[in-house]
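Please review this one:
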Amino acid sequence: MKLLWFFIAGALGVGGCQNNDDPMHASAVEDHAVSTSDDKIEITTPIGIFSTYLSDSAASQCQLLTYAQTTCEEDAIAAQHFFVALKNIGAFPNALAVSGQSDYQLLIANQAATIASPGWWHTGIQSLKGNRAPLADERQHFTEFTVQWRGLEIDTQLIQTHVAMHEDHTPVKVAEDVIAQWRTDALQRGLFTAPFLYKALRASDYLSEMQVPDTIAAFSRFDTQLFHDPFQGAITRYTHNEYEDALLDITVFPLTTSLDTAIETSLTNILEKEQADAQIVAAARNLTMVVDHPIAEFTPGRQFIEEKVFMLAVHAKGETEEPIFATTYVFRQEDKIVKVSTTFPPRIANPLVEQALPSIKVPAESPLMATLRDIAKTRS
């Protein structure tokens, strides 16, 4: 199958990406794309594998090599050989042939040319120049790997392989060698990690540009991590040195709705989704959910920041279990939503949030979001 479409429309994915945490238990995110076990490194993110055509620039290199005397052979190595090589190497356990269900797509294109034996003068010039030009009776493969995330290209690499005709150059062997070379490069560059994705898409640089407090009262900053989705942003976790169940998370992510939409509507919608999700979780655990503070503006927030802050507080209880509290605060800053999630009731959470608010600074609008919003305006 030849993949010939690239759509930006799918980049935003599902509409629920703005609610990142279990509403009853805020939890830190981990980048599950790459896992390490002993000496074995796996790229565990699902990835769809497609066969495609060489780009014009890559194809021109093959044509230049043949001096236009022969036609470069399209699909000299069948797509199935590349797919099998990917699975056999063990680094991509969730590779899926021709699947559009994953965020990542790997497009593989291949051409090959057999180079006729050059004259002795060509060999002499090659030796004097020290070039690695094709030798006599050589089969040369051009394999182009293009990685996309939701249809947006984030990386492309052309691997050129020289195989002398007298060597073992079966399509299976060449595919294995090429895949091994590409895999090594992908791991070295962190091709499937969240930081690479954010940089390639020109999303916000949360790790460098976002400011959050190091401490909030007795809570200490534990870690800041990126969600493996630029539309879900980054999360910073705070822990208490005495109470391991006492958690506070600050999550920052871009608004995916129009910036012209009334912010009160956006904030209310986020908290309504939080409340609905909390109800589902409580019901699944045979708990009764109680709303301690319905969705409303957190008016003390006006003393600390200009933006309106909205809040929601709930808890779930059972006959024998200790109550599970969740108090959530949301507000807009720049083109981002800031969500502060806690695992305690408002009487404890409120003063912590008041202390944290002035110290939270988010990155400005990213080129990625600016471009997507311009496209949306053009189509509206």
Q: What stands out?
A: The chain has two domains: 32-192, 204-379. Residues 32-192 form a domain with the Double Stranded RNA Binding Domain fold (CATH 3.30.160). The two ends are 33 Å apart (CA to CA). Residues 1-23, 25-32, 34-40 have pLDDT under 50 and may be disordered.
